[in-house]
Amino acid sequence: MAAKAKVVNVRQKSLGKRLYQYRWVYLLGLPGLLLMLFFNYLPMRGLLMAFQNYNPHMGILGSEWVGLKHFQTLFKDAKFYSMLRNTLVISGLNLLTFPAPIILALILNEVRNAKFKKFIQTSVYLPHFLSWTIVASLTFFLLSSEQGVINKIAIALGGEAHAYLFDTKAIYPIIVIQSLWKGIGWGSIVYLAAIAGVDQSLYEAARMDGATKLQCMIKITIPSIMPTIVVMLILKMGSIVSVDFEQVFLMNNAMVKKQLEVFEIYIYNNGIAGGSTQYSYTTAIGMFKSVINTSLVILTNWITNRKGYEGIM
Amino acid sequence: MAREKAVNKKMGMKMKENIYQVILWIILLLIAATMVLPFLYVIMVSFTDSSVYVAGSFYLWPKKWSTDAYQLILSGAGFLNALKSTLFITLIGTPLNVLVCAGLAYLLSKPVPGKKFFNKYVMITMLFGAGMIPNFMNMKALGLMDSYFACILPSVCGAWTVMVMRSFFQSLPIELEEAAEIDGCGQLKMFGIIVLPLSKAMLASMTLFAFVSYWNTYFSAIMYLTSTTKAPLQVYVQKIVLSSTVSDVVDLQLDLAKTVPQEVMRMAAVVVVVLPVLIVYPFLQKYFASGMMVGAVKG
Fold first, then answer.
1. What residues does CATH 1.10.3720.10 cover in chain A?
2. Cβ contacts of residue A11 below 8 Å, gap of 6+?
3. Interface of A with B in 95-124 (CB under 8 A)
4. How would CATH label the architecture of B68-298?
């Protein structure tokens, strides 16, 4: 009530007075607003390059305009479809692991011993804070043909070494397992918080009626945390045409180049690395990706709201 | 009879519950093992003395301990350069990130004119990014190529951090600020001596998040830092592990270089680079449990 009264009070003053009243608060926010302007909004002018034959010497204003030419080339490019396929395979496989953090949270929630629970949580959250270079290094130590633990064990048991990191069939599972390993613990935090918020009297009532643990989980816990699951799914949908650049970049090698050529890698190789100058074409690819991402978030959010769940916006 | 049956049933249930717990423990221990064992292995190998090292075998416990690999790495020019870069990026970036985000979050938490616009302004950066090439061109246009600030500034003001801080500021009791206002406390002073001290725990966790993310700087470094001497630690460790000639990366003048096995050097490099994250991690962990993250997502 007090807050409401204050708002009304504030509204009665003229705009100029209110702006003046908050002048120092604006000043506090200014650096952040400026940084976002310079590093989030200003780069967007570069999107114009997607509609030009961009020439670095002429700049954005002086370059020749070509309309949708690059997008037309893009949709005819066989490479585009192979990149799209690779991306969708990786995100699709990643999407299969979406329930993993939920299951981990449900299991953690059943553990009685608080100390043990804490210990497990400490271990499973850790990988989230490791850089992809460290994760890639650990993968190398595990799978490399000469120094990898798995191959050392295989040889000790009389088997043969296998170059997993160069195996075109193994590379997708490796990428997905890396993501799962890095994200499962961190992903479970949101669900644990949601489970902790479930009304305990529901469980008591269910137990009175003789419900088993499994029944409680399926009939009470999961429906109660559904809104959280939906929000997380929306956020995930937004990145369905994105792959973690650092991860794929680090796992890339000559043998699996074809499997791991996704949009980001192509953009980097042809727009930035090694003096390449396909600025306009690679900008068009990036823009295509961003537009799809944003549309997917907005679309899934809209559907969610219509289905009666609360979305993110 | 009836009573005996009831007792039996109760014991049966207890038994069942215990078995259930044991199964849960086993599953969780297996998951945790995949996270903990790789580090133990890397640490063990990194301390293995070259005299007992045999290529192709693996070590759960070194027969003879040695810190040669660490001495080599820590004395190499390659490491010292990389450390300098990472320290610069981390030590400038972290406080800047926390202060700038807190300032903007405070603005968003107040009933200021234009509040709706500012909220959208921050949210849009979460939804839509310009992409790699436009960002790269922008960095060139701003004259920040090959400057550490190219790795620092773009991530100083992140929408996620701002939103987390905003919901925290909104949850602070408004009466305190009202009382201070009546006492004639200015807005800057209010922010500095009332709001920030009240948010110490939240700011501490945000500081650690920022620290870890700057420490892990990799992609922006390969994009924007063109001089090889400016490459930060993550680039260094990537080169050591994935390149074939470790001694070049380490940049050694010592004869010892030839005696320490490559594998041991690699593992020691990983340990050195990951150590600071492992050290701050327990402090970071204190703040996870709260619903902070959920609140941020739901804005």
1. 69-113+184-306
2. none
3. 104, 107-108, 110-113, 116, 119-124
4. Orthogonal Bundle (1.10)
CA distance B8 to B264: 58
Selected for mutation to probe chain B from A141, A153, A246 (highest B CB count within 10 Å) is: A141
Count of pairs with CB atoms under 8 A, one residue in A, one in B: 272
pLDDT of residue B297: 42
Of all residues in chain B, the one with the smallest CA distance to A280 is B133
Q: What is the pLDDT of residues B132-168, one digit of tens each?
A: 999 999 999 999 999 999 999 999 999 999 998 998 8
Query: Which tokens hold the place of B211?
Result: 């620290």
Q: Is the pLDDT of residue A39 over 60?
A: yes
Q: Does A125 touch chain B (CB under 8 A)?
A: yes
Picking from B239, B241, B258, the residue whose alpha carbon sits closest to that of residue B249 is B239
Report the CATH number of the A69-113+184-306 domain. 1.10.3720.10
Closest chain B C-alpha to A283 CA, distance in angstroms: 6
Distances, alpha carbon B85 to alpha carbons B80, B216, B236, in Å: 9, 12, 11
Interchain pair A131, B186: CB under 8 A: no
